[in-house]
Design a protein that fits this description.
The protein is α/β, with parallel strands linked by helices. It has three domains: about 250 residues, Aminohydrolase, N-terminal nucleophile (Ntn) domain (Glutamine Phosphoribosylpyrophosphate, subunit 1, domain 1, 4-Layer Sandwich); about 190 residues, Glucose-6-phosphate isomerase like protein, domain 1 (Rossmann fold, 3-Layer(aba) Sandwich); about 160 residues, Rossmann fold (3-Layer(aba) Sandwich), CATH 3.40.50.10490. Helix content is about 40%, strand content about 20%. It contains 20 helices and 25 strands. The strands form four sheets. The protein has an eight-stranded antiparallel beta sheet with strand order 3-2-4-1-10-9-11-15, covered by helices on one side. Strand 23, helix 18 and strand 24 form a beta-alpha-beta unit. It starts with a strand and ends in an 18-residue tail after the last helix. The chain binds fructose -6-phosphate (F6R).
Length: about 625
């Protein structure tokens, strides 16, 4: 979490930093700051959003912020509450060294005590202020250049970081390093950009160098970048890649919020996910599987690790893979898996699902599985992300940048990849016969247009329903089979952006306790598509109705039984049960969005959240 951006070149750095911070705001938005070197350091920081920072900077315009060198930060607090003092950048005691940091320094307290004994004083509650003073202490003590002091300091630090460090006396130099948090250097003509992802610089350069974990780089104006290993100072040959990112993809394109734009992008993003993988002859092509076919065919077990929405996609994946490929699947929260000494056999396949590819717990779970000899497969959206690079093989979702903090198109494209995977493996293993394989592939090819129809069929009615329920305090989501994880996802969407307490349950579990919550004030959203466990879900709905609960049902077009019981119903097109989660989640995304908007919530940047959870 936290976004960092920096510039060394011949343009005015301030607008580049501010625009870059706005694009990185999805990573954290409780405070922001920047520093430029205009002969001397000039910095401004504040609690609040990047727009608050801009306002504060214009109020303080007496100081010149014209400079070609600088860096900025948008924060998601870890150590210390969000306030002006805890915001980044942080300066060393002399005021001569400045840092921006994304991550956590776990041993900051012991370093802080050591520095206090040396006479250093601290103004904030942050671990970052400790790190910048530690760098200053080592630089002065050892009489070494900034980059050496940074390296010495990082070799004593335990934790995760992406940092950028500047010193007042050397404006055209910046030292950057990463371990566990992302950092990319954009290399333009006579200029360098640094950022947590490439979005701040794509209109200036498409040449990017992604630092690997444990690497640092010294960036100097008009000189080649110098990349080294932090632990031994060994030189690393920089590997610069050409990005294919467009500016359109990271802008709102006429929509009011990124979330609604991303909801409506789903027909296209699913199509993009299937491109080259679902062929015109209704067969699947997954090179990530084909290149490791022996491994997949002999796998006795698949373990899926993920967090949040990606974990919900993994739960749907369990149903799909077990049904079609008959391989036992376990779905684990990455944060639990990594700390419980899991039993992993060398023949196991561990699949990580992650939109950002940077989630700290998922990354750590993968590293553990790799150490234990498992084959690692990734389903990531962000190309070149840490998880994608760690895996033995994988499939990108190609959903395009997802900027709204609440995940929408990432979820449906993850489901698409998991469906392709299950179909491909099932066919290759012979657990899915030729006829069924072809039939399912053919149906899958229609999913983008069915998603478009679902949006069209539900988008207006959802607004009426949202109007009626916008003031509730609680909500329950129920589903069975493949639609049970969709119930969990619907509840997560509602709570994270509207702050309404919501829970998802398997429909039949209600009578084991939660049904006690039902009264005339409790809305219950039922996932009740016609295929699957429809009759059972209808019975569960009767139980809710008998206790005066209010029922909102997601049903198949033309449904009668459930529609009669429900207070409101939202119809989705008819589809094979296996594909129904991709459609049934759409009205739930829309419902959460509209309820949150009606409650005056910031849907793209909900409170306390960040898009990329790079701390555990
Ligand atoms: C919810 C949401 C989160 C993420 C979770 C994992 O809308 O976005 O629950 O799904 O933080 O993130 P990734 O997929 O980037 O690993």
């Amino acid at each position: 979490m936290c976004g960092i951006v920096g510039y060394i070149g011949n343009k005015n750095a301030y607008p580049i930093i501010i625009n870059g911070l706005k694009r990185l705001e999805y990573r954290g938005y409780d405070s922001a700051g920047f520093i430029v070197n205009a002969g001397k350091f000039v910095h401004t920081k504040t609690k609040g959003k990047v727009s608050d920072l801009e306002e504060k900077a214009s109020e303080e315009a007496s100081q010149s912020i014209e400079s070609c060198y600088g860096m900025g930060h948008t924060r998601w607090a870890t150590h210390g509450v969000p306030n002006n003092v805890n915001s980044h950048p942080h300066l060393s005691n002399s005021g001569k060294i400045a840092i921006v940091h994304n991550g956590i320094i776990e041993n900051y307290l012991s370093i802080k005590r050591r520095l206090q004994q040396e006479g250093f004083t601290f103004h904030s509650d942050t671990d970052t202020e400790v790190l910048v003073n530690f760098i200053e202490f080592l630089k002065d003590k050892e009489q070494v250049p900034l980059e050496t002091a940074v390296r010495y300091a990082l070799n004593e630090v335990i934790g995760a970081y992406a940092i950028a460090v500047m010193e007042e006396a050397n404006p055209t130099k910046m030292v950057v390093a990463r371990l566990g948090s992302p950092l990319v250097v954009g290399i333009g003509e006579g200029e360098f950009f640094i950022a947590s992802d490439a979005s701040p610089f794509i209109e200036y350069t498409q040449n990017a160098l992604y630092l690997e974990d444990g690497e640092m780089a010294v960036i100097k104006l008009n000189q080649p970048i110098d990349v080294r290993k932090i632990h031994n100072n060994e030189e690393v040959t920089p590997s610069v890649q050409e990005l294919k990112l467009s500016l359109d993809a990271i802008e709102k394109g006429g929509y009011e919020h990124f979330m609604i734009k991303e909801i409506f992008e789903q027909p296209q993003s699913i199509q993009d996910t299937m491109r080259g993988r679902l062929l015109e002859d209704f067969s699947t092509k997954l090179s990530g599987i084909e290149n490791n076919l022996k491994q997949f065919l002999s796998a006795e077990r698949i373990i899926i690790v993920a967090c949040g929405t990606s974990w919900h996609a993994g739960q749907v994946g369990e149903y799909l893979l077990e049904e079609l490929a008959r391989i036992p699947v376990e779905v684990e929260y990455a944060s639990e898996f990594r700390y419980r000494n899991p039993v992993i056999h060398p023949g196991d396949i561990v699949i990580a699902i992650s939109q950002s590819g940077e989630t700290a717990d998922t990354l750590a779970a993968l590293k553990l599985a790799k150490e234990k000899g498992a084959f690692i497969y990734g389903i990531c959206n962000v190309v070149g992300s840490s998880i994608a690079r760690l895996t033995d093989s994988g499939t990108y979702t190609h959903a395009g940048p997802e900027i709204g903090v609440a995940s929408t198109k990432a979820f449906t494209t993850q489901l698409t990849v998991l469906t392709l995977l299950a179909l491909h493996l099932g066919y290759r293993k012979g657990t899915l016969d030729h006829h069924s394989y072809k039939k399912l592939c053919q149906q899958l090819s229609h999913i983008p247009e069915l998603v478009a129809q679902t949006l069209e069929m539900t988008k207006d009615k959802v607004i009426e329903i949202a109007q009626e329920y916008k003031d509730v305090n609680n909500c329950i989501y129920l589903g069975r089979g493949l639609n049970f994880p969709v119930a969990l996802e619907g509840a997560l969407k509602l709570k994270e952006i509207s702050y309404i307490h919501a829970e998802g349950y398997p429909a039949a579990e209600m009578k084991h306790g939660p049904i006690a919550l039902i009264d005339e004030n409790m809305p219950v959203v039922f996932l009740a598509p016609s295929k699957g466990h429809y009759e059972k879900v209808v019975s569960n709905a009767q139980e809710i109705k008998a206790r005066k609960g209010k029922i909102i049902a997601i049903v198949t077009q033309g449904d009668k039984q459930m529609t009669d019981i429900a207070d409101h119903s939202l119809e989705i097109p008819e589809v094979d049960e296996l594909f129904s989660p991709i459609l049934s989640v759409i009205p739930l995304q829309l419902l959460s969005y509209h309820i949150a908007i009606m409650r005056g919530c910031n849907v793209d940047q909900p409170r306390n959240l960040a898009k990329s959870v790079t701390v555990e």
